[in-house]
Design a protein that fits this description.
By secondary structure, the chain is an all-alpha fold. The chain is 67% helix and 2% strand. Strands 1-2 form a two-stranded antiparallel ribbon.
Length: 311
């Protein structure tokens, strides 16, 4: 949906402290729960050496994602055959590098609060960037849980339960795949280019009536140099509904931690099976505990999203 039509869906204002907390929580989730598990998965599967995924659906998903990202001119240097992991990992690393830059511009360009009725192109870009990061964390968390469950289950002799993924998660991964690819392409932009592009974005105020005329006047290359208009906005529920921000963000963080812990334990169990030829009942129980916690948190989130029409 075009930006002018989406303005009516945004809350009237946003406190910059909440935007910073949202960024901080998402960066913590990436650094502590998601990125280390994706890196370990990359090592275990051997995708940097050109090895394919064993599960046919995971391999097909990876090939589709790589094809889309290559079409967008986002390439992995030094690898002839790359998997989706070789795109996901650098994009997540980029988010951590961008953290201080985004915090500085929330302070500089937004101040104490942002009023939707006086949005400028650079403030809109900040909101969209935070929105894309939030979506990327959510999707990556679901993807990590899915891949470690079904891929490691596909290994011969595995004791890992490949059925520990909710059907609606699989559907979500499919329907939101293109948005995720665009998000990876945006977040995978070289840091120096991203900073330079942001510096050129005008501070002109727009509304529903003036947006299209101003874009035509400045040019889309100036108002949207990162191509974020291709992503639906807003993706984040907290930008649309007045929620307990701290509680909402903590639940999202906890969901990422649970997915990361389940992935970590599955990989640990897989390594033990490879080394010793058998499973480990204690680890398997811990995996079940994390999977239950993850499902409970997902149910709470999905119930909230359904209430506000995001499902």
């Amino acid at each position: 949906m075009p930006i002018p039509n989406m303005l009516a869906m945004l809350l009237p204002s946003f406190e910059s402290v909440n935007l910073k907390n949202q960024l901080s929580s998402n960066c913590d989730a990436i650094g502590e729960a998601l990125l280390p598990r994706f890196q370990t998965l990359q090592e275990v599967i051997g995708t940097q050496e050109g090895k394919p995924f064993k599960h046919a659906d995971v391999q097909a998903m990876s090939e589709d994602m790589v094809s889309t990202l290559r079409t967008s001119n986002l390439n992995v240097k030094g690898l002839r055959v790359a998997s989706m992991l070789e795109y996901i990992i650098p994009s997540l690393e980029n988010v951590l590098t961008l953290r201080s830059f985004l915090e500085q511009h929330i302070t500089k360009d937004i101040g104490k609060s942002l009023v939707t009725s006086s949005l400028t192109f650079n403030k809109q870009t900040l909101l969209q960037m935070l929105d894309i990061i939030d979506f990327t964390v959510k999707y990556s968390s679901i993807l990590l849980n899915y891949v470690t469950a079904v891929e490691l289950n596909a290994v011969e002799g595995s004791n890992i339960d490949g059925g520990a993924v909710a059907p609606n998660d699989v559907q979500y991964l499919k329907t939101q795949n293109m948005v995720y690819c665009i998000a990876l392409r945006v977040l995978g932009t070289p840091i120096n280019k991203l900073k330079a592009d942001y510096a050129e974005i005008p501070e002109a105020i727009f509304d529903e009536d003036t947006y299209n005329d101003l874009v035509a006047s400045f040019g889309t290359g100036t108002t949207d140099p990162l191509g974020m208009s291709a992503v639906p906005f807003p993706l984040t529920l907290v930008y649309r509904a007045r929620l307990n921000f701290a509680e909402w963000q903590m639940d999202r963080y906890d969901e990422c931690v649970a997915a990361g812990k389940a992935a970590e334990l599955r990989i640990l169990l897989w390594k033990k099976q490879q080394a010793e030829g058998n499973g480990d009942a204690a680890i398997e129980r811990l995996i079940k505990d994390q999977e239950k916690r993850l499902m409970d948190l997902k149910y709470k989130r999905e119930k909230l999203e359904k209430k506000y029409g995001l499902q």
